[in-house]
Amino acid sequence: MIVQNEHSLDKSAVSLMDLAKVAKISATSYHNLDPTVYNISVMDENLTEKKTFIPTYVNRFRIVGCLDPGSDVTLMQLSLFHKIFRCENALDKENVPDVRSYSNDCISIVGTVKCIIRLDSSHVLGLEVLVHVIQDIPNQVPWLLGANALRAGLGGVHFEESPIGPYPVVTFTKPYEYTCT
User: Fold this and answer.
1) What is the DSSP string of 19-31?
2) CA angle 21, 54, 81 (to 5 degrees)
3) Closest CA to 30 of 161, 157, 162, 180
4) Pairing relation of β-strands 127-134 and 143-145?
5) Predicted confidence (pLDDT) per residue in 33-53, tens digit
């Protein structure tokens, strides 16, 4: 379960979420070496899950999103869409596909929009990704980057060893070679 509501997170997870919102700080690192991947532990009924978050830039907004290579599509909640685009006209409401969650629940799609997602604020070029805009779902991340975003950037995720355990490394080769560590 992905948790965003700070009331349902323990104090350390809330602190990590606050760190993830700050540029150039890693939520899992004890040092400031320009890290850009946040690996946050979330407690859910005796189960600890680690989620990988990376910063992205859409329309001059920095958005920390949850990277989910198991999701076929990239999802954005409607409230976030309104903050970024300010205009419902950007939303294509024709030919909206049927999307189902891993547990086979139907996810209501409001529409789709093609976004240019930049991986760094200094990048001129970005990844063109079809984003499915959904109704807001409580306690879920508002920005989920799916396999289509990794595919657009010819990217991938792997893990490397560290003294505190394995940590995710996200790499992209398009439009620039870029590594989030």
Assistant:
1) HHTSTT--TT-SS
2) 75
3) 162
4) unpaired
5) 343 555 555 544 544 457 899
